[in-house]
Amino acid sequence: MITFVDLIDYFGTFAFAISGIRLASHKEFDVFGAFIVGMATAVGGGTVRDVMLHQSPFWMTQWSYFLVGFLALLLYVSFRHLFVKIDLTIFLFDTIGLGLFTVVGFQKTIDAGFQHWVAILMGMLTGAAGGVIRDVLLNEIPIIFRSEIYAMACFTGGIVFSVCLLLGLPNWVAQVLCGSVVIVIRLLAVRNHWQLPTLHKDD
Questions:
Q1: Among 156, 138, 62, which residue's Cα sits nearest to residue 102?
Q2: Measuring CA to CA, which residue among 101, 128, 107 is closest to residue 174?
């Protein structure tokens, strides 16, 4: 039976796959290359998480994630001109995926029996690592190494998830609040140009 977390995971996979495919097309990758970048973006963070939790990577036991990635590619190819015209496409899909994957990473870590502080870190890793892998494949500086608020949004969402559980709130409420906080922080950070302090080399 598909759970609420599974649905979040699929939606996150789709969103991150679209963001990876869109950036790959911007670099003029071929269709197969774009699919690889999209899948790496979509499953990269979860793969790192599962390996660190000593579990089999989720996509190796469920082929449906590849189907989601293929559908994302098919949708992008079919409506490529529409995606290209919408400048916010990459940002919006990346932001949605970031929030959804933070929820999935936190929940799966708790289900595996780990403490909340580990779940917060795994939620952040699940959300942010896929974007890092995508940027490396595209020869870009990973977004978490820039001054933008990215991984910190995931970290904050994880704290919200933890607090909700400690307060005894229903799991679904904690999941919705966690994902919403990540997405809202990311949107506000970009809109208001919030940035972390940047280290500069001495002149």
A1: 156
A2: 107
Amino acid 12: pLDDT:
87
Quick one: which of 17, 4, 39 has its CA closest to 111? 4
Q: Identify the three-state secondary structure at position 195.
A: strand
49 touches 126 (CB < 8 A): yes
Closest CA to 15 of 68, 67, 93: 93
Q: What is the pLDDT of residue 126?
A: 93
Q: Which residues of 72-88 are buried (b: 16+ CB within 10 A; e: fewer)?
A: bbebbeeeeeebeeeee
Model pTM score: 0.86
111-160: per-residue pLDDT in tens? 999 999 999 999 999 999 988 899 999 998 887 777 678 889 999 999 99
Specify the amino acid at residue 182. V
SS3 state at 183:
helix
Q: Work out the number of other CB atoms within 10 angstroms of the CB of residue 113.
A: 8
Q: Contact, 10 vs 110, CB < 8 A? A: no
Question: Which residue from 56, 152, 157, 49 is spatially nearest to 102, judged by alpha carbons?
Answer: 157
**Residue % of the chain over a pLDDT of 70:** 94
- CB within 8 A of 155, min separation 6: which ones? 120, 123, 124
